[in-house]
Amino acid sequence: MDKLLALKMFVETVRCGGYSSAARKLGVSTSSVTRQVAGLENELGASLLNRTTRNTSVTIAGQTYFEKAVAILDAIEEADAVVADRGSEVQGRLRISVPVEFGRRLIAPHLNRLLERHPGLEISLSLSDKVSDLLSEQIDVSVRLGSSVVSDDIVSKRVGQFQRWVVASPDYLRRSAALSHPRDLLVHQCLRFDYGGTHHHWTFLGDDEAIQLSVHGRLQSNNADILREAAIGAGGVTLLADWLVRDDVAAGRLTRLLEHYEVNPGSASSCINALYLPNHRGSSRINVFIDFLVEILNPDAPSISNA
Questions:
Q1: Which of 84, 110, 131 marks a domain boundary?
Q2: How many domains does the chain have?
Q3: Is the CB of residue 145 less than 8 Å from the CB of residue 161?
């Protein structure tokens, strides 16, 4: 029995919910799938699937075996991709994690261009505003905004930069106290991004002063677009990336405030970084994605990959 082939057929049978569906997906006969799965069961001395005339379901032992088999097949696929990844042709799956709105607004509209350039590339894109654990989550490259990573365990490549703007709707400003200096924010409703901590400081850097304020408000969220919508609805003042609110400011839905200051939450930077593990140095998949990021974020910048 070809054990690897049997594992593939068993996994597809579970995923497809039956022998016939798995056979169609694999392009083989139903009897071939049935025979391979039966061979596995005979070797293990355990039933992996429950069979009736109408359906096929996985047993408790089969579920455990399925999870292990998937991990084995994924590891083999990754091993193949790592070897192919050092060649001139970009091959294999690239697992990417990016912040939610950044991914939707800046990455997603351009992905087809990247895929068209590299027919052998597959992309698995995960949207999350949480910092990913590259190793445990099996992420090849993570894009972070304002994160400063100094570690021997992580390679960090700067791929762009952005600004954070203080904005509020015209309706909110008409019925609220004047806002011409950062300290005026202390009497305003501030819509705050939830970074997981209890303190919310906004840092203002001007020509001759640095001001750190502990801002307050009744709404906070871990999704930037929620804060944007709340600000447009006259809910308060918020601090958001320029790429998220630029169109709203141009259309008059939001007003940019305190423009003469550079503003960041706490000590965060305004850099956009691509993070990956050191053992992925030289990966053609990661290199083409980093070049892609530089291209869409800084159209006139040269390539910075191949490092």
A1: 84
A2: 3
A3: no
Asked whether residue 223 is assigned to any structural domain, the reply reads yes
Of 46, 68, 84, the residue that ends a domain is: 84
pTM higher than 0.70: no
* Interhelix angle 3-16/19-26, nearest 10 degrees: 120
Burial of 75 (C-beta count, 10 Å sphere; 0-12/13-18/19+)? exposed
74 is in which domain, residue-wise? 3-84
Tokens of 269: 């930077």
pLDDT at 307: 46
Strand order in the sheet with 271-276: 121-127, 92-98, 141-145, 271-276, 155-161
**Span of 20-29, 75-84, 190-199 with lowest mean pLDDT:** 75-84
State residue 82's pLDDT score.
Answer: 63
Residues 117 and 251 grouped into a single domain: no
For residue 184, what are the contacts with CB-CB under 8 A and spacing of at least 6?
Answer: 177, 178
Say if residue 62 is in the same domain as residue 108. no
**Helices of type H across the chain:** 3-16, 19-26, 30-44, 60-84, 100-102, 111-117, 170-174, 224-232, 242-251, 284-297
- State whether 111 and 150 are in the same domain: yes
